[in-house]
Every structure is written in C-alpha cells, then in structure tokens.
Amino acid sequence: MIAGPSKPRVTVVVLPRESFAHALRSLESLYAAPGIEFELLYMDGATPRALRSKLQAEARVRGFRLVPVTGPVTPNRLRNLGARMARTEFVAFVDNDVLFAADWLGALVRCADETSADVVGPLICIGDPPFRRVHSAGGDSYIGESPAGRSFHESHRFIDVPLDDAVRASLVREPMNLVEFHCMLVRSAIFDRIGPLDEQLSSAGEHSDLCMTVRAAGGRIMFEPSSMVNQFLPLLFPRDLASLPFFLSRWSPRRNAQSLTRLCEKYRVGMDDPGMAGYAEWLAKRNEVMFASVLNPLRRLPLLQPLRRPYRAAVAKLRELAAGSANGTPLPAPRRTVTDRVSPGS
Description:
Layout: E1 10-15, H1 23-32, E2 39-44, H2 49-62, E3 65-68, H3 75-85, E4 90-95, E5 98-100, H4 104-115, E6 119-126, E7 134-136, E8 139-146, E9 149-156, H5 165-170, E10 174-175, E11 183-187, H6 190-194, H7 206-216, E12 221-231, H8 244-250, H9 253-267, H10 274-295, H11 305-323
Helix pairs in contact: 9-10, 9-11, 10-11
C-alpha cells in the first residue's frame, strides 16, 4: 500500500500589521521560499477592495483560505481567530509586510521538535533591500520586583545592527524570554494551557504578554537564527491612501492608551513605572508624527474635523501616561546598549 502525502504540520496565519502596501510582495515571498509545506489562513480584515480582489484570485490559484473578518481588526483578535480555525500541530503567526528566507518555517519546526519549545522566533531583519540589518534577535521581557515595587522590562537584542559576518557568528539557537509577533511559531497545544491571546491588548504589548504568560505556565521559548524573515520599515503614514483608515485605527492613541492601561492592570505595575513610561513615550511620539503627517495636511477637509479634538486629547493622555507621576515629572528612560535596546511597539 502506498502512503498518501503527509498533512502539513503548520498553519500559517497572515494578518495585517499596519498597512497593505507590501501584502502581495509578502505573499509571493511566502510561496517562493523553499521549505516545508503549510496550510495558509489569510485574515481578510479591513483589506482595500482592489487588493481583496487580487487576494481572492491568489487564493483560487494557490489553494489557501481567505478568511473574511468583521468587527474590530486588532492583531490579537485576528490571531485568536486563526488559532481557533487551525487544525495543525503548530501555528505560525506572520505579519503581511514580511519577506521570507529559504527554509524559514522548516528551521522553526526543527527547533521546536529538537528542544520541545512551545514558542520559537526567527532572526528578524528590517528594511529594503532585505536581510541587511537586524530588527530583533530575541530579547527579554519580565516583571521586576524591588522594594520600590513592581516594574515592567522589555528589551531586544541587536536592534538596527548591520547583519555582518561577526553578528551572524554570534547568533546561536538558545532559550529566550521574548520573541516578536512579526513572525512566531507557536505549538497549538499551549493555548489549552494558557487560553487565548489577550484581546484587550489591541495595539501594543502583545508579544511581551504572550511570552510572559507562556513562561509562567512552564512553557519554553527558543530563538532560532537559522530561520530568517525580513520586516519592512514601519510607516509614518501609508503610501497607499486605501490603507489610511486601517493605519489610523491600528495605531490610534485610544487603543494605545487602552493597551498600556491593560498591561499595568494585568501585571500590577503602576503608571509611574519607567518601563511603562518609556512605552507610552514611544507611542505618543509615533502618534504625534502621524498627526502631523496625516491629519494636519488634511485639516481643511470637513470629514476630518471631528477627528482632530479627540485625537489630540488621546495623544495628551499618552503624554500623561509617559510623564509617569502625579506631579508630571518625567521618569528616566530605560538604559540602552548596542545589543540590548528597548524597542517597544516595534
């Protein structure tokens, strides 16, 4: 009797990160990269109409499932939808602005098999041309305890460092406290132990929350540098206007403040914590740039007038969180080094 083809062990779940400008290039890269077979769930939330038609055509040709999403298009909500639909041993969450090196997925699965890891992260590069500069090579995320109280810490290794031979030689497979959702392999069974991802984290903190939750449940996280992906640079504003509504929603100051508040409540960390203050400062600066880049030039359009006051109020709230203390005295920023630099919300 001849055995039939084996079923893929991984379901890849693609979701929009902040725009749709690189979606087709990313999808093409996903199928062009040599490696193991996979099933694909492509989450269709807030997709511009013209792109949706192209994705529907790609789905018919390639045989993947384009999943219509109604309601809020937030990262953890889409990841939860994909994880519930998957029927494979592993789920690989990837953003729609990622390019893939050869055998990126096979390397992640081999690492999980050989180390019994529940979560595995690849070496994430950034920019175009791709695979020239490191975005993250794993990192650390934890809640510190001291006489002064509890504090939130998040750091990433080798941020914005050129990927030269010396850096490559220094990167090895090793246990890690933090990997990022730009690309992450997760053993499906871990969700039976930790439950679904926290959907109250609607725009920030999701990767730290998952990794701290997995570790608290006795799970194992690994960094696998033989797997490589490449993220495009974050946008100040979308190049394609069709992405603008989703972009403004994805990084809205209201969602940012909600996510920070949720992190503080969940981990019993005060708003006066330097780690949270640094997170709020990064998000506030991003929102101010967005306001100047997108809303100010269009301020004469009547449609946008109702947005201006609440948007400024929400950014002010982030600034208040970033100030950190009741008297408004800014707290010191976390210390940073070349290989261990804080990059929240990346």
